[in-house]
Amino acid sequence: MTLNKAMQQRLQQIANDQPYPLIFATVSGAHLYGFPSPDSDYDLRGVHLLPLSEIVGLKTGPETLDISKQLPDLELDLVTHELKKFMGLLLKPNGYVLEQLLSPLVIQTSETHQALKAIAPQCITRHHSHHYLGFVKTQWRLFTKETPPRVKPLLYVYRVLLTGIHLMQTGELEANLVTLNEKFQLAYLPDLIAQKVSVQEKGTLNEADISFHEQEYQRLVSELEQARDRSHLPSKHNAADAMNELLLQVRLG
To answer: Would you say which domain of life the source belongs to (predicted)?
Structure first.
């Protein structure tokens, strides 16, 4: 999944217009996952850097910035964390920030971004499975509470499960469902993805298929749990020292 040149430039301009310099900005959400609809919004995620004057004084700058834009032909959700906060999140079993950091849909980058990406593998542990197991339960609830059921939350269910299983098996993070299915070969996914990308966000599913997808959901949850139990990933990260050194380098020069 790539962005067209015009959209890339528009998002770069929005990133450049932020009140604090961005260490990186990447695209997350449906565009990263490989199934954007024609009317999907753009989820831009990144890290901003506060000046020392807004860190060491009594009046400190924002740790998180959340900006939404509704333009005639573009709906945008931009969330950035300050570098120290983002590093703290990376040192937890937090799949969200790993996916943001490692997204191939890069709008803005820097040497610090590349350094963070180099440290990222040291952050990954088998406990990241808890993130994906918890997240998928939420997505399944969203899917089952709607009548008629929508394709979008169901695709999120499969995306989360396959990302988690793949991470536990390989230590590599892959968020694109199309790419993941090249490995997992779930025969029903291409049709679901095609339906999502060809219609609007609220495309629905035949209710007769729910029992099948519930069985698949339970099967893949079990597979993720087994992948966690068999994983060769460490139980603890060893990235704290490298993160601290990088933070000091960025702050102090």
So the answer is: Bacteria
